[in-house]
Amino acid sequence: QIFLGALSFVYFAKALSGSYLKSTITQIERRFDIPSSLVGVIDGSFEIGNLLIIILVSYFGAKLHRPRIIGAGCLIMSAGTFLIAMPQFFMGRYRYERFPSTINSTVSLSPCLQDKSQTPLSALEKSQAKINAGCEKEAGSSMWIYVLLGNLLRGIGETPIQPLGIAYIDDYAVEENAALYIGCVQTVAIIGPIFGFLLGSLCAKLYVDIGFVDLDSITISPKDVQWVGAWWLGYLIAGVISVLAGIPFWFLPKHLPKPESRKDSSTSSEHSKFIIEENKDQRASYWQQAKLAEMAKGKALNFLPSLKNLFGNPVYILYLCASIIQFNSLIGMVTYKPKYIEQQYGQTSSKTNFVIGLINIPAVAFGIFSGGLIMKKFGVGVYGAAKLSLGSSFFGYLLLLSLFAMGCENSDVAGLTVSYHGTKLMTDYEQALFSECNSGCWCSKHDWDPICGEDGVTYVSACLAGCQASNGSGKNAVFFNCSCVGTSESSQSSSAVMGPCQKGNECPKMFLYFLVVSVITSYTLSVGGTPGYILLLRCIKPHLKSFALGIYTLAIRVLAGIPAPVYFGVAIDTTCLKWGSKRCGGRGACRLYDSSALRYVYLGLTLVLGMVSIFFSVAVLWVLRKRSSPQDETLSANGERGACGTKSRKDNFVHSDQLIQSTYWPKKETRL
């Protein structure tokens, strides 16, 4: 029970830190001024860390001191989490693009500089000196690398928790209680992401340099695309939780007394499956004297035959392909969902994370629970589980299709989405930033300091809006005599305020529709999770269970967890209309996306991958139907015979390595 409580807390800690990373994707992108594709690489580094040691942990970990290995994993995971937050304390204060007069009210400058002579020489020199100093600092460091390395360490530390923790429970728990204990652990793991996104919501409200700067001097609000919240604070909290979660495992024993009901059970622990059958005294003596090299030699002899058995199983291979493609779809969608909501519907990072944590994650949890409940209540066998998994995916992606109609139109941004005359823009956007109304101004096309004109149009900067005067400072700055704002008759008296204009009136309504459909879609897709997992367990030999799950997890991480965030990020970058500029030149983070293009790229890529995975799921169903008779399916529901069986029961036991009978593992996966 102590191990169960400790493992549940560890599951909570790793789920919290993982989901918090997802919630800070846009914050990291803005803080380090990097594109979405590079953020995708950072996100995928967690899976790379898993990849480095997952085979070793899955294959050899059961023979070592499992609780202490889990404890060491927690320490490594916490060290990685702390490392992610470290750049905040070494890279200086966050700088955002702002016109000088909005920062320091003592210097009065006209936004529309007719020429350099209009700017006081001392102000220009000071500004240039600051830029040069910043360039020297930036040129010597790429601090996002520490975030990548920290996430890599998180992946390494998290690896032993699931395979060793679940196997430990399965080995020493009473057989009737094992499924309940595993269910408790998984339930707590689902609670973790809820708190992770809520923590992300809280930290996104706080300014990135809170405690280090005067907050009254900050001229941007959380609605600004340049706003960066206190992303680092959540990592410090998550790191402390990971340290606390690992402490109990250092005091737990290597072995526990085996329950009486398990000593002679046919469902003996996996711990004894791979070793030579000897009497208990001999085995105990062997474990005390065995060395890692000797164990590795024996394991290596079984590795290739085991691998051949798995890859010779058509159901396992087809389901693996379906899962890889579907996880590509889901991982890409989940990773960039906060960015999509922010850019498509004009929501703040804080509100986006709050909505995901409080609405979407519980829907996923309820869907997983519903899938298991349906399996139990209706006695669904393997063939039925395959159908339920397929139906869940089909209807989930069908609902996703409706989200194409629930988007917002592009905001009216002069020179980017509309011309300065109000017509839709079709020409190259950088050239269109300049017009007759601002031709007399000395402006940079690289700046992003948006203002909202009284005509409801957003202008990239006060200079490009042709504003001749300003009043006030910071968030309260007001610009007057903007030659590009409004009609030519009123241009001399037109004004604008700091910050971009709000999205259209229909956007809040569309956001509400999006939330409703998104929740239903999340639930529907999640219903197929448990049936799919049962299908995976039932169609492999019981003594290959851990190895098969290790290969499955490895394939998902390598072929989905690592590449999906990267190519989703690359695709999203293609929809950018206005890139930010780094202080030393070069492209920074995207400031404005084409809403329509973003919607079609993000949802389209998710949907295409989902449809391809459905084809593989249909193939799984076809193979099962071909190899199973209706009688087999009925018997399978009662735990007497596996639906993955071939027509010859004898072939299953003696000759076939592809499919199994549940005699090896009576009723266990059904309860799980």
TrEMBL record:
This is Solute carrier organic anion transporter family member. The lineage of its organism: Eukaryota, Metazoa, Chordata, Craniata, Vertebrata. Residues 3-628 form the Major facilitator superfamily (MFS) profile domain. One of its GO terms (cellular component) is basolateral plasma membrane. Belongs to the organo anion transporter (TC 2.A.60) family. Residues 431-486 form the Kazal-like domain. It is found in: Cell membrane. InterPro entries: Kazal_dom, Kazal_dom_sf, MFS_dom, MFS_trans_sf, OATP. It comes from Nicator chloris.
